[in-house]
């Protein structure tokens, strides 16, 4: 009941000034497709890359990571989005959702608009991209072809209610969220309470973005309910027209509701540097580390360092060819080599073509 009253309160707050002029409705249509080929030098027999990889996760196979068609509607005080998708990303990342929802990339509606003072206040309900992290499922929007380990193992998407406010000068964004859970469209269990999230983003200028995002809620791995607290911090610094640097840090803590354990902690720092060259060429290098000693997210003890090098060629304003080599090195023998023997190293080469309209 408290959740219902809170949502109704948010609705009343944003709807107070939302008188929609249906004659001013605007519609747009867009699409995206990212076919790829990946070769894992461990040559996995089942064709799947390690279980903590959800994007570009098929080995020695031409496939599509993500393809979607999206429609958008907007007016002065309302907006809505609907996008349906297909691809190996959807197969891997939404496997736990009901079959009818596994191909929904985005489905949301919002009311709000410009308030007195020039700021914008919106209430959005539905399925939308996660408020956590600087990487998304849409490859062209990321500096590297594949995702970082921290991005693969934090929410790509979420469903619920989001109240957001952007200041008139566009420098500050504040968001509060009520969510169905940790990367869930349908709640994991009916007796679990709704989760909460928050986001503060600051853009002092066009070349710097600073972001802090949080999540708090109950999760139920197996038969045990646990309380999870998670924080994502990142900064994007475009020092010159040609050189940029992204720094990120994820930290998480989880404790069961019985309270008789100290809890488990995991963290992951990442740094990505990108150089834009002449004639549509760009290079990106990534260094990352992921520590999950208790296997909270990965499922087993996991302490892994990763390095990757990426080369891009913008062949058209709506088309991008990419090639990436990546090496993962673990403190334990958690990978398999070509003979099926445990090893600490995993090497993969991936190429992709992204097109959009």
What this model shows, in words?
A hairpin with a 5-residue loop joins strand 6 (157-166) and strand 7. This protein has helices at residues 2-15, 88-93, 149-152, and strands spanning 26-40, 61-75, 78-86, 104-114, 120-129, 157-166, 172-179, 195-205, 208-219, 226-238, 243-256, 264-276, 281-292, 302-316, 319-330, 335-336, 342-343, 345-356. 7% of the residues lie in helices and 55% in strands. The strands form two sheets. It has a 16-stranded antiparallel barrel. The protein is globular. The relative contact order is 0.13. The chain has three helices and 18 strands. The protein is mainly β.
List keywords for this structure.
single chain; 357 residues; mainly beta; 16-stranded antiparallel β-barrel; two-stranded antiparallel sheet; 3 helices; 18 strands; 55% strand
Compute the number of helices: 3
Tell me the overall shape.
globular
pLDDT averaged residue by residue? 93
Number of E-state strands:
18
* Multimer state: single chain
Q: How are helices and strands ordered from N to C?
A: HEEEHEEHEEEEEEEEEEEEE
Query: Span from first to last CA?
Result: 43 Å
Strand order of the largest sheet: 1-2-3-4-5-6-7-8-9-10-11-12-13-14-15-18
Helix content: under 10%
Strand content: over 45%
Query: Which residues form runs of ≥5 with pLDDT under 50?
Result: 13-18
The gyration radius over C-alpha positions equals: 21 Å
* Most strands sheet: 16 strands, antiparallel, barrel
Structural class designation: mainly beta
């Amino acid at each position: 009941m408290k959740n219902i009253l809170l949502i109704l309160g948010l609705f009343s707050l944003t709807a107070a000034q939302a008188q929609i002029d249906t004659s001013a409705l605007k519609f747009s249509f867009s699409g995206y497709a990212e076919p790829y080929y990946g070769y894992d030098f461990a040559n996995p027999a089942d064709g799947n890359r390690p279980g903590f990889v959800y994007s570009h996760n098929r080995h020695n196979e031409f496939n599509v990571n993500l393809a979607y068609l999206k429609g958008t509607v907007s007016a002065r005080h309302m907006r809505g989005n609907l996008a349906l998708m297909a691809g190996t990303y959807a197969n891997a990342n939404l496997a736990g959702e009901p079959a009818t929802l596994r191909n929904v990339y985005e489905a949301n509606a919002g009311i709000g608009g410009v308030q007195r003072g020039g700021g914008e206040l919106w209430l959005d309900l539905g399925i939308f991209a996660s408020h956590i992290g600087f990487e998304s499922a849409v490859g062209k929007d990321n500096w590297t072809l594949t995702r970082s380990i921290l991005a693969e193992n934090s929410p790509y998407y979420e469903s619920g209610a989001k109240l957001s406010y952007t200041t008139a000068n566009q420098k500050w964004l504040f968001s509060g969220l009520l969510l169905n859970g940790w990367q869930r469209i349908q709640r994991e269990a009916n007796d679990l309470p709704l989760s909460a999230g928050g986001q503060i983003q600051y853009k002092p200028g066009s070349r710097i973005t600073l972001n802090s995002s949080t999540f708090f809620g109950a999760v139920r791995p197996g038969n045990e309910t646990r309380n999870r607290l998670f924080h994502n911090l990142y900064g994007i610094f475009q020092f010159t027209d040609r050189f940029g640097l992204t720094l990120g840090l994820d930290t998480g803590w989880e404790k069961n509701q019985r309270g008789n354990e100290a809890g488990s902690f995991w963290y992951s720092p990442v740094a990505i540097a990108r150089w834009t060259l002449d004639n549509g060429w760009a290079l990106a290098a990534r260094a990352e580390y992921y520590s999950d000693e208790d296997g909270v997210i990965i499922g087993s003890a996991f302490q892994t360092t990763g390095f990757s090098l990426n080369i891009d060629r913008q062949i058209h304003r709506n088309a991008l060819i990419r090639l990436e080599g990546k090496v993962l090195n673990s403190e334990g023998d958690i990978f398999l080599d070509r003979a099926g023997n445990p090893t600490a190293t995993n090497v993969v080469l991936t190429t992709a073509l992204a097109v959009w309209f």
